[in-house]
Design a protein that fits this description.
The complex is a heterodimer of chains A (248) and B (261). Chain A has two domains: 33 residues; 207 residues, Orthogonal Bundle (MetI-like fold). The two termini of chain A are 29 Å apart. Chain A contains ten helices and no strands. Chain A is globular and about 75 Å long. In chain A, helix 3 packs antiparallel against helix 4, helix 4 crosses helix 6 and helix 8 packs antiparallel against helix 10. Chain B is mostly helical. Chain B folds into two domains: 33 residues; 206 residues, MetI-like (MetI-like fold). Chain B is built from eleven helices and no strands. The interface between A and B is large, with 56 and 58 residues.
Chain lengths: 248, 261
């Protein structure tokens, strides 16, 4: 296929996306579905409210993400260091691997009350699970031959840790961090579905009760944008620090 | 000359360090002990953690209702997962078979892919109602988009050697997909399916929080609303058990599927 034809097909696809969106809103094929112009108008009209709500949610997501990353990366480095810790934590890792983290939102709200702490801690725990599990999965995959050859060449345990174990788990760890960054916004919004008074999740529920789908689509677009920004900034960091590693 | 002395405790510790399973068991026992101490010495308020007795009491007195709710969640998760991932696999197949369809569909998928499906639950409840339909369609949406992206990646990763060898042996375009690319990507697909399954259970539980149509999500929300830690933690534990059991089922199927690897 030539390049021009590919471009034409892509343009046609985007145009048909716009066309079907507006068609389904005009004939109400999907209930309460707004036209694109209405969505843009809703963004312009509710600019201040949306900005303040996204600042609240971003603060929760970023606080939670940084706490979760701190705990997760520390735990992962410790796991990589100690064989015994790895063995003791093994059942918990398999639990964390298949815990539906959204089920934990009410647990934290019960423990901390309807305050900021509950939501931040929930986001932190959700991010912690992702980072920790990705590291724990990477540790057994460090080729044993590398360790053996390093110790044959006279490396101490610290040397092996620094020059063999860390470089081989870091790419996986960064993959986990990237997933956690994307998850943090979704988790913050999901935690705001229950008993919040501000933030994008509250806005979504509030507009949903009033069947204002144009405003709801604005909110979803903002969440998507924020998550994509977080994802891409982690990716840029990864390129700077781990340019030598293969994309995973 | 250094004298060699026998130190039984050191030998014991070294023995313990190599015994992976026992250490894991000790970890679980320590976790359970912490729970029991917190509960029985009243170190946490009564509403924060249930005692084992309360959990047993709950199960004895209300097991039929709880079982019905668990069944609802399992049914929704399995339906959403099955429909979403089968649709996605079919779609991936067509996409790789006809290049024009791929070029046409790629930008639209790129628009929807970064939308976190967790935030779409209010939409699905408005469109499909606060019942099975709403929750299942949320699960279908989430599993479909995850599997479409992952499935395409998996098919693209087929080693070129396999494709060239099959082409040399005279395989046609459809057979190439069905007999070469699809089987060779099965390990990757199984990994994707396990991630998708966890996402689906998350979506179902989150949908049940707001849909109020039964299920584990509703058990959890009731526990939180009426300050009943037994209900709340029962829901969380059952959610974990359900996701573990479904994951094990996927793995059993996968062992059969990837025998050739």
């Amino acid at each position: 296929m030539t390049r021009l034809r590919t471009l034409l097909v892509i343009a046609f696809s985007l145009l048909s996306f716009v066309f079907f969106w507006n068609l389904s809103s005009y004939f109400q094929l999907i209930p309460y579905f707004p036209s694109m112009i209405k969505v843009f108008r809703a963004i312009l009209k509710n600019y201040e409210f949306l900005a303040s709500a996204s600042i609240v949610t971003t603060r929760r997501a970023m606080l939670g993400l940084s706490l979760g990353l701190l705990a997760g990366v520390t735990g992962a480095l410790f796991l990589a260091w100690s064989h015994v810790a790895n063995a003791i934590m093994d059942p918990y890792i398999s639990l964390a691997k298949s815990t539906p983290s959204m089920a934990l939102i009410p647990v934290f709200i019960l423990w901390f009350g309807l305050v900021e702490t509950a939501r931040v801690v929930f986001v932190a725990v959700a991010c912690f699970f992702v980072v920790f599990v990705s590291a724990a999965e990477a540790i057994p995959n460090v080729p044993r031959v590398y360790r053996w050859s390093a110790s044959t060449l006279g490396a101490s345990k610290g040397d092996i840790y620094r020059s063999v174990v860390l470089p081989s788990i870091l790419p996986h760890l960064f993959g986990g961090i990237r997933n956690a960054a994307t998850l943090s916004f979704a988790a913050a919004v999901a935690s705001e579905f229950i008993g919040a008074q501000d933030g994008l999740g509250y806005a979504l529920i509030h507009f949903g009760i009033n069947y204002r789908m144009d405003k709801m689509i604005c909110v979803v677009a903002i969440i998507t944008l924020l998550a994509a920004i977080a994802d891409q900034s982690i990716n840029i960091l990864r390129r700077i620090f781990l340019g030598w590693a293969k994309e995973k | 000359m250094k004298r060699v002395t026998f130190k039984p405790w050191k030998a014991f510790i070294r023995r313990l360090q190599t015994c992976h399973f026992l250490l894991g068991f000790l970890g679980v026992a320590a976790g359970l002990a912490v729970w029991l101490v917190l509960v029985y010495f009243k170190l946490v308020p009564k509403y924060a953690l249930p005692t084992p007795g309360e959990l047993a009491q709950l199960w004895i007195s209300e097991s039929p209702r709880l079982l019905k709710n668990i069944w609802l969640t399992v049914m929704r998760a399995v339906c959403g997962f099955a429909v979403g991932s089968i649709m996605a696999l079919f779609f991936t197949f067509i996409r790789s078979w006809i290049p024009v369809v791929n070029t046409f569909i790629e930008p639209i998928i790129q628009i929807f892919k970064p939308v976190p499906p967790l935030v779409l639950s209010p939409f699905m409840i408005i469109w499909f109602g606060a019942d099975n339909e709403g929750v299942i369609s949320l699960a279908i949406w989430g599993s479909f988009f995850l599997m479409v992206v992952e499935g395409h990646e998996a098919l693209e990763k087929t080693p070129l050697v396999y494709i060239r060898a099959a082409a040399t042996l005279g395989e046609n375009k459809l057979g190439m997909r069905w007999r070469v690319m699809f089987p060779s990507s099965i390990p990757h697909l199984i990994g994707a399916m396990r991630i998708t399954l966890l996402l689906t259970i998350n979506l179902v539980i989150l949908g049940e929080f707001s849909a109020a149509a039964g299920g584990i999500g509703e058990i959890i929300v009731h526990g939180y609303r009426f300050l009943r830690p037994d209900l709340l933690f029962f829901g969380v534990i059952v959610g974990i058990i359900v996701s573990v059991v479904l994951d094990v089922l996927v793995r059993i199927v996968s062992i059969r599927l990837r025998r050739w690897v």
